[in-house]
Structures are given as C-alpha cells and as structure tokens.
Please model this.
Amino acid sequence: MNKTLTENDIRSSIIAAGIRLLDTGLVARTWGNISARLSQREFIITPSGRNYRTTEPQDLVRMDILDLSYDHSGLKPSSEHGIHAAVYRLMPEASFVIHTHQFYATAVSAALKDTVIDIADEAGRTVRTEIPCAEYGVPGTKDLWDKVERTLKDHPKASCILMARHGALCFGPSMEEAFETALAAEEGFKKLFFEKVPAAEGATGLSGIISEDLTSLPPYLDDFAQMVPLDYDVDDREALRLVCEKNAAAYLYAKDAPPIDPDDALSQHEGYVKGYSQRIK
Model:
C-alpha cells in the first residue's frame, strides 16, 4: 500500500480504473469489479451493478478485509467482494485488484485447468508463466470465494489467476501493475487460443467458423448463461454480441470440457433478468 495516497486518491484511482477497463476491452457493460487496499484492515470496492462511466467516488464501498462488513446505509458492494478480500488477506504486497472478463483469458478458463502462457516482462523478454485456475463456483457465492482462496494459498507468488468459466483476477502493488498483468496475460492467452483454434485467426467473427447460431451454443461461460436468451429489444445488443463471441471461443477452445450445469445456468439467467440487468444505471 502506498502510504502517501489519501482515501480520496484511492477512490479516484478506482474510478479511473473502471473507465480503463472499458476502454481496454477487459470488461463489457458492468461486468468485473475493482478494489484497492485502504489499510491492513480495509479495502474499497466498486458497487454492484453500476455503470463504470457514471460511478462517482462516493459510490464506492468501504469494506472490512476480515469480516466483510460494510455500511448498509449506502450502496451494496460488488457480489464478488469475497474474492478481493481473499487477495488482501493472503497477498500482503497486493494493493489493487481487478476482476476482468477479458476475452481470451475467459475463453481459456472454460478448459477448467491451470495454463502455461508466454508473458513479456518489462525488458520485453518472454517468460513462461503458469496461470492457476480456481475450480468452478457460481458467481457471487461463498463456494467461489473459497475456491479462489484455496488457489491463492496454493500459488502464493501468483499475480493473476483464472476463475473457471468466469474470468481473471489480477492484482499487484498498484493499479498500473495490476493492469500490466491483465494486459500481458491477455496477449499470452490470445496466442494460446490461436495455437489451438487456428481457424479463428483472421476471422471477423466466430459465427463464420461455427455452423449454428452462436446464441444456441451451450453455456460455457457465466456471462453467457446470464445474458442469453434475453429480449434483444430491452438489452444491450453489443454486449450480447460480445458475450456470444466469447462463449463461442470457449466452446472452440474447451469443447472437451463440460458446459455449465443447466440448472446453474438457468438460475444465473433468471437472477440476471429479474434483478441485475434492471439495476444498471
């Protein structure tokens, strides 16, 4: 933690990071979440279901790292606050955490296993890096938090882990380092994806190499399970397109792995349509 930063500085950095997540394509819509360590006992995190471009510093939620308590008079914290707290408890050097839904890392996470990718270091040298993958857990549940915590304990030197079928968790001493990790890892996952699915390289869209409608594929990723099918007239067409492309990439990369359990997928979809998609501001 940079002790020269005030709480206002930290809140401003999270707001800036949210815009950067969208601008770099590491998330779409309001998916993903961001936090920063405030002290050894507290962190600040983005609220649930809020547009990154309209979120204000005062909207961010201060939380206790150990017991996950927060002021209930304000906004609710991101439903994934438990995985951020786990990073701060187990990784003493981590002061900034971003949970992304970046395209290639998320697609590869559907294979449900640890992965070795090439990542360029600060000197431009290629480093073979193992990226551990936490076992699958339904988003926002203690089951997922526990599996992420176990993965962090097993890989104490990690700065990036995958969450199966869900996305990536990247962290570091600063916002810049967390983003550098996320972007460098995405390049490595992109290379790995094209090595396994060479037909996708150069394609303008995966619908050209998959015979069926992309919306009809099984759900290999959580955001696809949540969003498809939706009434196209009341939801975000571009987000839908991106989610369908990403799920198709997961299908092509990890078709030997099972898709999400139908009951889990239906539950996620119902929760999204009835609640989450209506809360976005």
